[in-house]
Amino acid sequence: MNATARVLPFPGPGGTAAVLTGLGAWVPPRVLSNAEIASRLDTSDEWIRARTGIHQRHIVDPGMSTSDLAVEAGQRALKSADTDRVDALVLATTTPDRPCPATAPDVAYRMGLERCAAYDVNAVCTGFLYGLASGAGLIAAGVAEQVLVIGADTFSTILDPDCRNTAAIFGDGAGAVVLRAGSAHEPGALGPFDLGSDGRDADLIMVPSGGSRQRSTVTPAPAGSEYFTMAGKAVFRKAIFQMAGSAQAVLRKAGIGLHDVDRFVIHQANVRIINGVADMLGVPVGRFVRNIDRFGNTAAASVPLALTSATESGELRAGQRVLLGAFGGGLTWGSTVLRWPDIEAM
């Protein structure tokens, strides 16, 4: 298919690499079970588990926003990295506190980082990978020595409560990492990135109204158009194809093979998508980290939440080679590789 796809090398021209040195995550306390969803929609716990692999998800209480989750996860990542300062904060989110201004400066201020550069990145479920590449670029260019990258989303705030498909899939959460300038040869150094997009399929994953295109018309927004929509079958196929292709592309750039990867940590969209990527790559599914059963699809928070869960459980261990990958609206996709560092998740 014709699509934009570039393989971006790191470290930068000066030899400086971005090294992952801190990791943290946080989810809101409220747990929404399959049984609770089934009690008000035409579905069942068995149907949701069979179709998605999800048993439960966490959602925000009224009055809680994306920035609240981002602050908690960011603070934990700073504690993990044993630092209290960064030069930049990159927040990957599709559910900002407001359309304007960006949410990142508020997060930075509340964390006591108000003098650092701060901005949002919106690549939907690929947002964290785009954020990592952005942070690595700041370090490679010499703009920053330390960067906090946060993936945070509260998709429960943009879902149609009467849609069983989206209500059953998405949860809320946040995950964060601290990157520092270092050597490309040390554990935690991010390898090459593969990033791509295909805007021809932008309407497969979207919120139809609320933006300038709809607001510039004289026609009122249709009822329900403020909610998130997704063409499930088409997204399913494209997610598998693009994440598998991106993984192969980034491994070629890194000069290693699939057999060299100890763990695959990809976007937790649906257990059948994870299994599909494993099948397309010809890799045992046991090498894929999975926590979707407990958290659902947390969009930009998905990959850092999975990293945190796997580190806490011991599934991710120092020295393992890890491939990160994601696919999201836009359409967008991305991947990178690293040797897992000896860090404690918070």
Automatic annotation (TrEMBL):
A single Gene Ontology biological process assigned to it is: fatty acid biosynthetic process
List the Gene3D superfamilies hit by this protein, alphabetically.
Answer: 3.40.47.10
| Active site, renumbered | C125, H267, N297
Annotated GO molecular function terms are:
3-oxoacyl-[acyl-carrier-protein] synthase activity; beta-ketoacyl-acyl-carrier-protein synthase III activity
Pathways per UniProt: Lipid metabolism; fatty acid biosynthesis
Q: Where is this region: ACP-binding?
A: 268-272
Start and end residues of each Beta-ketoacyl-[acyl-carrier-protein] synthase III N-terminal domain: 119-199
The reaction(s) this protein catalyses: malonyl-[ACP] + acetyl-CoA + H(+) = 3-oxobutanoyl-[ACP] + CO2 + CoA
Q: For this UniProt entry, what's an example GO CC term?
A: cytoplasm
- Is the keyword Transmembrane assigned to this protein? no
Subunit record text? Homodimer.
List the protein's name. Beta-ketoacyl-[acyl-carrier-protein] synthase III
Quote the gene name from the UniProt entry.
fabH
